[in-house]
Amino acid sequence: MGTAIICVVILALLVVGIKTSLKRIHSGCCGGGDAPKKWKVADKTRAHYPYAVRMEIEGMSCRNCAVRVENALNKLGNVWAKVNLEKKEATVLLKENVDDEKLSAAVGAAGYSAGRIAHIRP
C-alpha cells in the first residue's frame, strides 16, 4: 500500500513537471525563445502621475515574465509600471484613477495573476 502511494505521488510530480516544462518551452519563458521587447513609456516625469498602486503578481519566474507584465500594464495608457521580480510585485504609477479590475485584467491577459492591490497614493 505504501509503495502505491509513493508511486502515485511521484507520478503526480512528474506530470506537473512535464506540464510546466512544456509551458515554458511554448511561451519562451525562462530563456527559451526571444526575449519580449520592452514597451517604452513616453512620459517618465513622476510628478505627472498623482496615483500609485502596488500589485502582487503571481506566476512570474524570470525577467521575461516581468517584462511581459510591465508591457501589459504600460500599454493601458497613462500608466508607468515597474516590476520587481524578486518581490513578485509591480509598482504602477497612474495619471488618472484606474479601477483595480482593469489593472488585474491587463495582468491576467498577459498570462499572470494579480494578487492584492494596495493604493499607495493619494
> How much is the radius of gyration in Å?
18 Å
Give the helix level as a range of percent: 25-40%
CATH architecture of the largest domain: 2-Layer Sandwich
Number of helices: 3
- Give the strand content: 15-25%
N-to-C series of helices and strands: HEHEEHE
The average pLDDT value, as a whole number, equals 87
Structural class: alpha+beta
Per CATH, the class of the largest domain reads Alpha Beta
Number of strands: 4
The number of distinct structural domains comes to 2
Largest sheet: 4 strands, antiparallel
Q: Going across the biggest sheet, name each strand in turn.
A: 2-3-1-4
CATH topology of the largest domain: Alpha-Beta Plaits
Q: How far do the termini sit from each other?
A: 60 Å
Explain the overall architecture.
By secondary structure, this protein is an alpha+beta fold. The chain is 39% helix and 24% strand. The chain is built from three helices and four strands; from the N terminus they run αβαββαβ. Strands 2-3-1-4 form a four-stranded antiparallel sheet, covered by helices on one side. The longest helix is centred in the first third of the chain and has 26 residues, at 2-27. The mean pLDDT is 87.
